[in-house]
Design brief:
Oligomer: single chain
Strand order of the largest sheet: 5-6-7-3-8-9
Distance between the termini: 37 Å
Bound molecules: adenosine-5'-diphosphate, magnesium ion
Strand content: 25-35%
Radius of gyration: 18 Å
Shape: globular
Largest sheet: 6 strands, mixed
Amino acid sequence: MKLMELIDISYIYHSADGETEAIKGVDLTIEEGGFTAIVGPSGSGKTTLLKIMAGLIKPSRGKVLLPENVKIAYMPQRDQLFEWRNILKNVTISQEIEKQDKREAERYAEELLDKYGLGEFKKKHPSALSGGMRQRAALIRTLLSRPRLTLLDEPFSALDFQTRLYVSDDVFRILSSEKKSCVMVTHDISEAISIADRVVLLTRRPATVKAIYRIELDKSAPPTVRRELAGFTEYFKTIFSDMESSDE
Ligand SMILES: Nc1ncnc2c1ncn2[C@@H]1O[C@H](COP(=O)(O)OP(=O)(O)O)[C@@H](O)[C@H]1O
Ligand SMILES: [Mg+2]
């Protein structure tokens, strides 16, 4: 089933120094149950595209189609946990702002925190957690609204390389066991191939879709294992050389 369809999307930023065309004529379909990674060079327009998908900004041209009542959650690039709130209060903040049933929100939050190894930290403040644990907490906050589609903007970019590997396994495990459809933006080709079943390559700004790749690696294997599989390097070489050739 189609969860979202982007039709001929363009986006232009207007500022005091003039216009910046960030996205140009992007067509893209997101299927239920899939994990799509969007890759492209820094400044190519990835965040802009994800914000359009999240409904945070309106495209200058084109349409975003989605079935009624599809709940979308968006995780911005920085983890944005508030130091003055404990972890439980951080992950339930949207439900608190929307004045939803507090007991139900906290019950589901505690269930997810326990399940993903943060149960003991729910009364701690963010600075007491490692980078990887904070990232897990941010993801749990994103999932708490029970979205049909989860949008992640460079979820691992603030982490060092080792932590990034562990945390991508965590994030993969959480999203697959909660059966979420997901779109993740990254500038890291290896990261995209290791976690997604489809990779969308964008050109430099203004972003257009350069190519789409189906990743036929074992879907049940976590990212660190997929990095070791035969076939991984071939995908990397292909996408890397296509990304370079968009430089002309
Ligand atoms: N608020 C803004 N005003 C003007 N230009 C912007 C704004 N936000 C982003 N841009 C420009 O749009 C382009 C795409 O930005 P962005 O979507 O953040 O790229 P990416 O996430 O791929 O690094 C960049 O050249 C950036 O400088
Ligand atoms: Mg970005």
